[in-house]
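Morning. Coffee machine broken again, so started the prediction first thing and wrote up yesterday's gels while waiting. Chain of 169 residues, entered below exactly as on the submission form.
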Amino acid sequence: MSETIQDGKFVELTYKVTDKKSGNVLTRVEFPLGYVHGHNEILAPSVHKELEGKSEGDVIEVPIDGNQIYGPRDESLVFTDHIESVPEEYRQVGTSILMENEKGQTRSFLVTRMDDETLTVDGNNPLCGREVVFALEVLTVRDATDEETRTGGAVIAEANIDPSLMRPI
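Came back before lunch.
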């Protein structure tokens, strides 16, 4: 008998998120994502709820309304500026930029558009204002180790990595 997903179980899965309207795949996680159910809620709560009781090999689809999770789009979080005003390292669509307001609060913005003269950044979550479908495949369900429960997910053994090979992301 296979184990089912419930609190305290270590779960590995892959998933993809598809825009319900266009059918475009917005993101895909093909490398197994490991977490301890009930200890490290890494996906939307409704996704975790739908995973409960599922077993290794199960494939499920969970519709998500981005407005319910992230709220409606806020167009005041979209800014366009002259490209020469933007540092070179941010001049690529898809680049994430952490910005701070006058109160010291930070928010992540994503470069969404760029042409020869302007660059546009958007502080809305990419899923806000969209209806999406999470398609998940459960790869592993087993009892979590004590260490996995403490950390909330997979424990990676330490590796000897040459520091000169490290670079910021």
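Residues 45-51 form the longest helix (7 residues). Going to sketch it on the whiteboard this afternoon.
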